[in-house]
Amino acid sequence: MSSVITKIESEQLKSDRPDFRVGDSIKVHTRVIEGDKERIQLFAGIVIARKGSGLNQAFTVRKISYGEGVERVFPLHSPRVAKIEVVKHGKVRRNRLHYLRGRLGKEAMSVKDLSQQGEAAAASA
Hints:
Strand 1 and strand 2 (about 35-50) form a beta hairpin. By secondary structure, the protein is of the alpha+beta class. The termini are far apart. Helix content is about 20%, strand content about 40%.
């Protein structure tokens, strides 16, 4: 019975999703249907959590909008998620970044940038 379920789930998995981790800054292009029209809406922020596996995999993105923190959970393999763009890779030492909720201003969106790490190592060498 479970082999039938895994076969159906494997057909619904999306293969065009980029490799991203917790701490990365991403842009999520979501399909929004208003009446009989469909449009693409962006949600850009930091990935603070990933959970689940297979078809049930989801990720949480947090951004600051007009001084308020906004979090949104997206199913990774949903047809509503049109595209995911990785803006920059961050370096974190945790699996979940829920501590960002208590921060204010620039600190709320600051995670070490991997590109800055490479530049600092090259400058010191």
